[in-house]
Write a structure and sequence with these properties.
mainly beta; seven-stranded mixed sheet; four-stranded antiparallel sheet; 11 strands
Length: 129
């Protein structure tokens, strides 16, 4: 059984930092590109950041560029998201997702929800003073 388990969410003040983790089991981790999505109440799920199989290519939503950093440790089957300079609008449930992208990973395809075969249950991030 494949499992993606997110952790590291919580309550933080504006300007603060959090580091999210996503630990995978039951799959060959480096066969999958990995992405963080988020969903705020009443809004659609949106892509935050994506990292390629070996970690050599990354993509970011414009809203988080320069503040968030995605990384992965394939030896530990773990995906990370370092979030700095957090803003109230970053408040959301954050999900990690795994996709094979057999037809190619690029600046457009990483945003397509249908490309992802496995999803975690999410971790809540709240940014408030």
């Amino acid at each position: 059984e494949v499992q993606l388990v997110e952790s590291g969410g919580g309550l933080v003040q504006p300007g603060g930092s959090l580091r999210l983790s996503c630990t995978a089991s039951g799959l060959t981790f480096d066969d999958y590109a990995m992405t963080w999505f988020r969903q705020a109440p009443g809004k659609e799920r949106e892509g935050v950041s994506c990292i390629s199989w070996g970690g050599g290519t990354t993509y970011y939503a414009d809203s988080v560029k320069g503040r968030f950093t995605i990384s992965r440790d394939n030896a530990k089957n773990t995906l990370y998201l370092q979030m700095n300079s957090l803003k109230p609008e970053d408040r959301a449930m954050y999900y990690c997702a795994a996709g094979r992208f057999r037809d190619g990973l690029n600046g457009g395809t990483w945003l397509e929800l249908a490309e992802y075969r496995y999803w975690g249950q999410g971790t809540q991030v709240t940014v408030s003073s």
